[in-house]
Specification:
This protein is α+β, with helices and mostly antiparallel strands. The chain has 4 domains: 3-49, no CATH class; 56-64 and 211-277, no CATH class; 68-204, no CATH class; 285-396, no CATH class. The protein is built from 7 helices and 21 strands. The strands form 7 sheets. It has a 6-stranded antiparallel beta barrel with strand order 3-4-5-10-7-6. The chain has a 4-stranded antiparallel sheet with strand order 2-11-13-12, covered by helices on one side. It has a 3-stranded mixed sheet with strand order 16-15-21, with helices on one face. A hairpin with a 4-residue loop joins strand 15 and strand 16 (294-297).
Length: 397
């Protein structure tokens, strides 16, 4: 929405509010000072409310309030002969499991663990997770196991990037895949039977300190860097909390001064997240997926005056082999004579012109008019950018 149209829109809203006040007076209703003040507040809100405002919480997150990845190495047992068999590190894992219960496997004995498999466990520890909470975990085979269906994960510690144990995992796997093999070598596989999940299969044993309560200041990070948006976020926070409380450090981060203490800062962050801000328009971009032929053009793309002519040149070469027979009693030999036929077909598409400031709708209309394929559209867009007629970033995936 342009500045002029936005101003007219707000003026229309303000005029409607003023007409409401005049009609109330026409009916003989005397407005009390409080009601009159409310009417003025309504008019002011109509004049200052953003057109396409979004909550600050939808634009990014506070620094430190993030999830942490956990991993672990464990053993899945109870498989129906689809395990790792005699894989060395599976055998070592079973020796370790047996030693927990005071059992010692004889040296040099290979248990041939067809019903067990070595697996890697992954999980995500959300922010503010407390001891006793349950986490969903993913279990994936790392050896020769053909399927984890029907298996049970033995108790396994899950570690963070710092090497500390933050959760313990155990439980029965839910596997969506299926794998069946016969003695003659034939097999049928549906989805991925070597990976599964255990809902609530891990218990949090240690909480992660987010550090926001003791940090010198709160920091809010945008999900996408934008100098205009980060400035608007700082301005909205200053209008709500007071001038000078927030400042934009760079294109991503807004630093907010706040009193120390987890309770005070938690309430303050909740208040900030619900504030509305009008984010800046996205930069003009054209996204091209060369593998699938998908082309996405956002609404900010504009085309300068340009003329485009697009056509195809098709060359067909047909090779026919003819047999040449010699005349009777000519002492000649039979020979194969190639006969070539070349056809050239060139489509003659009319040239079309983009008017100054052509929008996304104009681009789509012009491309559809000539029947261009996604590959042809990519070629046209690349040529427009090279000619300086398209001021947009061209991203090829």
């Amino acid at each position: 929405m342009s500045l002029v149209s936005s101003f007219r829109h707000h003026c229309d809203q303000a005029g409607a509010a003023a007409q409401l006040v005049m009609r109330l007076r026409a009916f003989g209703l005397r407005l009390m000072p409080t009601l009159a003040g409310m009417a003025l507040v309504i008019v002011a809100m109509l004049l200052t409310s953003p057109v396409s405002a979004e909550r600050i919480k939808d634009l990014g997150h506070f620094q430190g309030l993030r999830a942490n990845q956990l991993t672990g190495y464990g053993i899945v047992v109870g498989l129906a002969g689809t395990g790792d068999d005699n894989l060395e590190y599976t055998t070592q894992g079973m020796h370790s499991v047996a030693s927990r219960f005071g059992m010692q496997l004889p040296a040099g004995v290979n248990p041939a663990l067809k019903n067990a498999a070595a697996v890697i466990i992954t999980a995500e520890l959300p922010a503010f997770a407390k001891p006793g909470e349950r986490l969903d975990i993913t279990v994936a085979a790392m050896g020769k196991a053909k399927s984890l269906r029907g298996g049970t994960l033995l108790m396994t510690p899950l570690q963070g990037a710092d090497g500390q144990i933050y959760a313990m995992a155990q439980g029965n796997l839910a596997v969506g895949g299926l794998g069946v093999s016969a003695s003659d070598g034939s097999n049928v596989t549906v989805n991925v039977p070597t990976a599964g999940r255990i809902p609530g299969g891990a218990t949090v044993e240690r909480a992660v300190d987010a550090g926001f309560a003791t940090a010198p200041e709160l920091r809010f990070n945008l999900a996408e860097a934008d100098l205009t948006t980060v400035g608007r976020v700082a301005s909205v926070i200053n209008r709500s909390l007071g001038a000078g409380r927030a400042r934009a450090i760079d294109a991503v981060t807004v630093a907010i001064s706040a009193p120390a203490g987890a309770e005070v800062r938690t309430a303050l962050m909740g208040q900030i997240e619900d504030l509305l801000v009008d984010p800046a328009d996205a930069p003009a971009k054209v996204i091209v997926n060369a593998r699938t032929g998908t082309v996405v053009i956002n609404g900010a793309v504009r085309i300068a005056p340009a003329a485009v002519s697009h056509g195809k040149l098709t060359v067909k070469v047909n090779e026919d082999l003819k047999v040449s027979q010699p005349a009777p009693f000519s002492q000649g030999q039979t020979a194969v004579v190639p006969k070539s036929k070349i056809d050239v077909d060139e489509e003659r598409n009319p040239m079309f012109q983009f008017a100054p400031g052509a929008s996304l709708a104009d681009i789509v209309k012009a491309v559809n008019a000539i029947g261009a394929s996604p590959a042809d559209l990519v070629a046209i867009l690349e040529a427009l950018k090279e000619a300086g007629a398209m001021k947009a970033e061209l991203v090829v995936l």
